[in-house]
Design brief:
By secondary structure, the protein is an alpha/beta fold. Helix content is about 35%, strand content about 20%. The radius of gyration is 17 Å and the shape is globular. The mean pLDDT is about 95.
């Protein structure tokens, strides 16, 4: 039911440090490309990045210049994260496929998850929330449409108490009302280890094989400065960590 096409979104300010496309973003796309053999990878951007890793991955992509959405149902979108949240749902409704954040890495193919009409992963074993960093959907899925409609009540102004209301909490509430419309996977399929410092050490300092993982979410907000900003292929090749052992296959 879910088409084997991928969507990545790259929104940034002109002059941002992310204009220099980092190795970790290259590996997110390259791992998806190698393991899943997608029919197409769409890459949506407002400013085109630069650098050797962008030059290497660009031939694998269909690059689409797009202006980040500024509002949804009349409600202003002030943060790039929320603009991306809205766009990813819209794209999945229009095209279907697999959305992934750029701070991810694939470990094994998603093939046996594509039989469902909508797939999302838990964020933590006991939390009443999902994570929208990886979403899979058939075209025009009923659950995606229901979720999108909930943005009529969007009210976050940035990093406030409503920051994750529509991206993770409302989808969980909808899943309780409409359980037949989606397939929920455990947190260790997509989003484990979590973003706590002692969890990030499991990804970037320890060497652990998480048997159930289809991919890992790297939680760039907490891991960027310490682990990802200055990541090099030499370090990935030489030092055994959970992330590096997966990543070196795609260099």
């Amino acid at each position: 039911m879910i088409p084997n096409i991928f969507h990545f979104i790259f929104f940034t300010d002109e002059g941002s440090e992310f204009i220099r496309f980092p190795l970790v973003h290259y590996l997110a796309i390259k791992s998806a490309y190698v393991l899943n053999k997608p029919e197409k990878i769409y890459f949506y951007l407002n400013y085109e990045p630069e650098g050797e890793w962008w030059d290497k991955i660009k031939p694998c992509l269909e690059v689409i210049n797009i202006e980040p959405p500024s509002e949804i149902f009349g409600n202003q979108l002030m943060h790039f994260a929320h603009k991306s949240d809205v766009l990813r749902l819209k794209l999945l409704i229009e095209k279907g496929g697999i959305y992934m954040d750029l701070d991810t890495i694939c470990k094994r193919p998603f093939e046996n998850l594509l039989k469902y009409n909508f797939v999302i992963g838990k964020q933590g074993r006991f939390r009443k929330k999902f994570c929208n960093g990886i979403i899979m959907s058939e075209k025009n899925s009923e659950f995606a449409n229901l979720w999108f409609e909930q943005y009529k009540t969007f009210r976050s102004k940035g990093k406030d108490k409503y920051w994750a209301e529509h991206s993770s909490k409302i989808s969980y509430i909808l899943s309780k009302k409409y359980p037949s419309l989606l397939h929920i996977v455990p947190s260790d399929y997509f989003h484990y280890p979590l973003y706590y410092p002692f969890h990030l050490k499991k990804l970037f300092e320890k060497c652990i094989d998480y048997k159930n993982a289809y991919c890992h979410h790297l939680w760039e907000g907490g891991s960027w400065n310490k682990y990802l900003k200055n990541l090099t292929q030499e370090y990935i090749k030489k030092v055994d960590t959970t992330y590096n052992i997966i990543a070196r296959k795609f260099l």
